Amino acid sequence: MTAPAIAPACTLVLFGAAGDLVKRLLMPSIYDLAVSGVLDPGFRVVGVDRADISTQSWRDGLNAALHEMASDPAAEFNAGAIREDVWQDLAGRLEFMRGDVTDDATFEALAKRIDGNAVFYCAVAGRFFAPIAEGLGKAGLLRRPGGGFRRLVIEKPFGDDLASARALDAELLSLAAEEQIYRIDHFLGKETVQAILALRFANRIFEPLWSAEHLDHVQITAAETLGVEGRGSFYERAGALRDMVPNHLFQILAMVAMEPPADLGERAVRDAKGRLLSAVRPVAPDDMVRGQYAAGSLGGAHRVGYREEPGVDPRSRVETYAALKLDIDTPRWAGVPFYLRTGKRLAAHCTQIVLQFKPPAHALFGAGSQPNRLTLHIDGDKGLRTAFDIKAPGPGWALAPVAEAFRHDDFFEHVPNIGYESLLYACMMGDASLFQRADAIEAPWAVVEPVLEAWKAGEPEPYPAGSAGPSGADALLARDGRAWAPLQPEPDRRFGRRTGGEAQG
Fold first, then answer.
1. What gap in Å lies between CA 422 and CA 386, rounded to an integer?
2. Which is more confident, 330 or 73?
3. Of 456, 422, 377, the residue nearest 189 (C-alpha)
4. Burial environment of residue 73 by CB neighbours within 10 A (0 to 12, 13 to 18, 19 or more)
5. Model confidence, pTM
6. Which of the listed residues 188, 277, 363, 493 has the most CB atoms within 10 Å of its CB?
7. Residue 370: pLDDT band with limits 50, 70, 90
8. What is the pLDDT of residues 189-201, one digit of tens each?
9. 291: number of CA atoms within 13 Å, CB side?
10. E-only strand ranges, 295-438
């Protein structure tokens, strides 16, 4: 396998440098890139934040956090022992600059520190995206040097409804060209999400089945056992729908449902995604369910309800669970509903895609057969699982459901990867195929606009912490004669392994 090219030398500017995103995700990812040897000797980082700290104290704090996370099996970054030679070299490239992103003087000072290529990363709240872009524009920092680049990276949320998303895009595009703007969604940094395109388009056994002719419906689930974890004030403004659906779940939807792009270049991939997202119908009033977790038991411990969480209004109507039924107006997906759900304080942590096939055209074995399913596990026990029927041993024609599984970590050497590594590298390389274009931001907001309007009134349905969600979500599928795939912890599975007389996936 060919080693990846070294990214061009550049300065990575991190706005919000003292924040949690930089400490937990961005700096570990930069360290991973340094270990992999793809950073040019001229690569450096300038951190900008209002915090009153020195460059050395910023470095020390990042170093301590890096070591703590590296040895924590539960952390997203669990690289084991930190290579001190790599960290010391990287630390020498880190510079901290105190500054307020609403003050022009900050950008004037920043301009004196940058010469050549630069990536400006907004690791801040969404309300600061436009002021940062404006400050960069005024200081001339978005003007591209001859033969070089200047790029602006923004995290979600990209607005909080269709109008604000369009306003943000208009503001950004008045200051920078579309090809300079990298709208990042960390779900697209996950290896298992990127692998969807390879699974579909590199394997003849899958792609011909990936259509209305063979599929009954598709489910996309992002379930969390966590609650709001001290972010009650943020969640009161966002809610489950805004936090997860128009971004993460719609990006997975696009990967699952898009037509084959002409090639893997950024324009072809983004065009294919844009066409798919523009074909999704706005959600009908009867096809939406919202819930809010109440007190319950999870993992053997009592969990308070959402309204008892710090920073939450005791009478809050904000949803912590959202489920939608979507229809896509393309020949491939005519009559195939897509069911999306996401929620907090659910029975298991689970991000998965379930493709459920239609029953056999000829019911030779009667009503005893179970629907075939192909399940893609995005996190946890990453990989894919197939469920199908086979003849049970013995006389007669009784069927037995079996499952086979491919586990990603059984076939590939573990490489520490949070998901931001490939995104940061792609940005430095100028590959925007894993980033969102303006049309791919606005189309999902248009789809969920009826939901936002409908949920201004009424109350979310309560569901106990530790459950599978509100009963209304089950009813959403039951009325169509369908049911959600179960939420369950991922067991240790091996391909073709048999345990206790049952075929295990």
1. 28
2. 330
3. 422
4. exposed
5. 0.88
6. 277
7. confident
8. 888 888 899 899 9
9. 27
10. 296-298, 301-303, 321-326, 338-343, 350-357, 373-377, 383-391, 399-407
